[in-house]
């Protein structure tokens, strides 16, 4: 099923930043004071304004495993080496979480990246506890573990090294081909049924991807990553998420078909979520990039969210409700079956978990 490409508005420059998902920094919902920008009449050229640079901020957290008991999430544990994400995806449901750090969900989210340098040591400590119950650990449940800063900090790789030593299964969600850097670890773990990777593909249209996900890998590179992972024996699935009514949902079947041809073993999808500050951020993006259809897109989202732009309720927050959401669900089920992507999501093996015996500085086993 071929999907027609959207005409992205490339003429509007004011209020946009090249290479960033948004130029807007909405107020933090937890702050009492707020600052609003205003036009002072000078009308300076846009190029004269300084471009925001990515800032790295150390996180002094004392724990690393986040635990989840939500009834509609399939995993219990996750690790996020980074908070904030330089990919700048405008639809990212994690944007409002930056408010807990005192930052904005807008430009701050993609320029103020909080990293956890102690993540590997903390993970080893938590896995070594007698009370730890082995379970799949998900990397990328909130922000991408292979965003650009990972190239230099390599925290995700260090976390994987710990998980491999403990033989704790891992599931990775990313929209970066950077995951291939760690193919050596992942292939060894996959051989023991301890690892799988999901590549997020939201569109096959490079122009739309560049507008929605300005610093993420191109759609073609993501599909190539699925092919390379599969060739190495690493199970690779596709996350056709989020589906945004009137923006990329027409591509659902095309994405699944392309992923299947690339070697994907399974597929998942979710409906776009717009919690808290994300709703006005996404609305602003629509009005700048797709002004002729912005109202229609928002109307379709409301039709799928009980009349609102966001529904936080368990069991419906990922799928939506109503006729439009049900039609999307049926389309996904039919396409997944057609392209052989249903039933391929096998469980990882938690029974191999083992706490490594401590070694001395010289690498020898302790006598006692």
Structure report:
The protein is of the alpha/beta class and 368 residues long. The chain has a domain at 50-271: Alpha-Beta Barrel (TIM Barrel). The chain contains 11 helices and 10 strands. The chain has a 7-stranded mixed β-sheet. It has a 3-stranded mixed β-sheet with strand order 1-5-4. Strand 7, helix 5 and strand 8 (195-200) form a beta-alpha-beta unit. The chain is globular, with a radius of gyration of 21 Å. The N and C termini lie far apart (65 Å). The mean pLDDT is 90.
Summarize the structure.
This protein is of the alpha/beta class and 368 residues long. The protein contains eleven helices and ten strands.
Structural key phrases:
three-stranded mixed beta sheet; 368 residues; globular; alpha/beta; 10 strands; TIM Barrel
List the helices and strands and how they pair.
Blueprint: E1 55-58, E2 65-67, E3 77-79, E4 82-83, H1 107-111, E5 112-115, H2 119-127, E6 137-139, H3 150-153, H4 155-166, E7 170-174, H5 183-191, E8 195-200, H6 206-212, H7 219-231, E9 236-239, H8 252-262, E10 267-268, H9 278-289, H10 294-303, H11 323-338
Parallel strand pairs: 1-5, 3-6, 6-7, 7-8, 8-9, 9-10
Antiparallel strand pairs: 2-3, 4-5
């Amino acid at each position: 099923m071929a999907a027609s490409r959207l005409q992205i508005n490339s003429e509007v420059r004011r209020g946009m930043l090249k290479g960033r998902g948004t130029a807007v920094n909405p107020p933090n919902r937890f702050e009492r004071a707020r600052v609003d920008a205003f036009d002072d009449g000078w009308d300076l050229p846009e190029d004269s304004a300084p471009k925001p640079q990515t800032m790295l901020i150390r996180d002094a957290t004392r724990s690393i495993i986040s635990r989840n008991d939500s009834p509609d999430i399939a995993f219990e544990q996750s690790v996020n080496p980074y908070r904030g994400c330089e990919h700048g995806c405008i639809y990212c449901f994690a944007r409002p979480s930056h408010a807990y750090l005192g930052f904005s969900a807008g430009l701050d989210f993609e320029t103020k990246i909080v990293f956890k340098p102690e993540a590997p040591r903390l993970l080893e400590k938590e896995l070594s506890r007698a009370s730890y119950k082995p379970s799949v650990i998900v990397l990328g449940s909130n922000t991408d573990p292979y965003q650009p800063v990972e190239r230099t900090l390599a925290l995700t790789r260090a976390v994987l090294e710990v998980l491999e030593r403990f033989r704790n299964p891992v599931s990775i969600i990313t929209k970066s081909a950077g995951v291939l850097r760690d193919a050596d670890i992942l292939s060894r773990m996959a051989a023991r049924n301890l690892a799988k990777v999901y590549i997020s593909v939201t569109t096959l249209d490079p122009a739309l991807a560049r507008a929605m996900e300005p610093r993420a890998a191109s759609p073609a590179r993501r599909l190539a990553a699925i092919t390379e992972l599969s060739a190495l024996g690493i199970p690779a699935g596709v996350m056709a998420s989020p589906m945004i009514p009137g923006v990329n949902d027409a591509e659902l079947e095309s994405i699944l078909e392309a992923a299947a041809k690339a070697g994907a073993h399974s597929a998942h999808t979710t409906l776009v979520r717009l919690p808290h500050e994300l709703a006005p951020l996404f609305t602003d993006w629509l009005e700048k990039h797709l002004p002729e259809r912005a109202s229609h897109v928002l109307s379709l989202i409301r039709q799928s969210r009980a009349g609102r732009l966001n529904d936080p309720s368990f069991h419906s927050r990922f799928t939506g409700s109503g006729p439009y959401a049900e039609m999307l669900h049926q389309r996904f089920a039919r396409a997944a079956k057609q392209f052989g992507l249903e039933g391929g999501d096998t469980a990882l093996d938690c029974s191999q978990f083992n706490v490594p015996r401590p070694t001395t500085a010289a690498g020898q086993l302790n006598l006692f």
